[in-house]
Design brief:
The chain has seven helices and ten strands. It is α/β, with parallel strands linked by helices. The protein has a six-stranded parallel sheet with strand order 5-4-1-8-9-10, with helices on both faces. Helix 4 links the parallel strand 8 (about 135) and strand 9 (about 160). The longest helix has 13 residues, at about 140-155. The two termini are about 35 Å apart.
Length: about 210
């Protein structure tokens, strides 16, 4: 079975649940908290593995407790971790999540941490070149992401970009993407089309393909 390689970030999600999300200057008493794996790339890698895929996760972590949490969690889900860079200079990313337990609405502050310093020369591109599929997002520095997409595309690897968080992309990005998977908000960012229903989604998709 060929690898699916995922380039992305891990952050330790620290979520706090309560009856409401506090406003500025307000303190509330919550009812529970949880610390678990997060980051789009990490979540995608775990999902693929649980669906039976053979996954190689490419990222950067700090040499700290959250970094160890990441490695343990990924290994538990049978994900290849040998291409994760461990940094002595940077901290593992963390996300603070405030959740309104009544509505499910949340407010999130993400500190990307170590992956924001990931450099092209820290990635073994042969791993990507020999994969069946290469999947990434926009949480890693874009210069690195584009370089990896190009390496994959030049070696006939299927490329998927989940454009989150949405940000401006050069035409060169689109030239190296097979599958572009925005949600409604991200699609509106790239096309200017407000998506309320399926027909709006089709108009937006046509603009993206053009």
């Amino acid at each position: 079975m060929s690898y699916i390689s995922v380039l992305g970030i891990f952050v330790a999600d620290i979520s706090f649940s309560g009856n409401k999300i506090p406003t500025i200057g307000e303190t509330i008493l919550g009812d529970s908290y949880n610390i678990g794996p997060g980051g789009k790339g990490c979540n995608q890698a775990i999902a693929i593995s649980r669906l039976g895929g053979k996954v190689n996760f490419i990222s950067k972590l700090g040499n700290d407790d959250y970094g160890k949490l990441a490695i343990n969690k990924l290994k538990k889900d049978n994900i290849e971790t040998s291409n994760i860079v461990i940094s002595e200079k940077h901290k593992t990313g963390v996300a603070g999540i405030l959740v309104d337990k009544n509505t499910g609405k949340n407010a999130i502050n993400v500190i990307v941490g170590a992956p924001s310093s990931l450099k092209i020369n820290e990635i073994d591109l042969n791993i990507i070149k020999n994969s069946k599929i290469f999947l990434t997002q926009l949480e890693i520095p874009k210069k690195v992401t584009l370089n990896c997409l190009k390496a994959a595309k030049e070696n006939n690897v299927i490329t998927i970009l989940n454009p989150a968080p949405a940000s401006n992309l050069s035409v060169e990005f689109f030239n190296n993407i097979d599958y572009f998977t925005p949600n409604e908000t991200e699609a509106e960012f790239y096309t200017g089309v407000k998506i309320n229903d399926e027909s709006d989604a089709k108009v937006s998709a046509k603009k993206l393909i053009d």
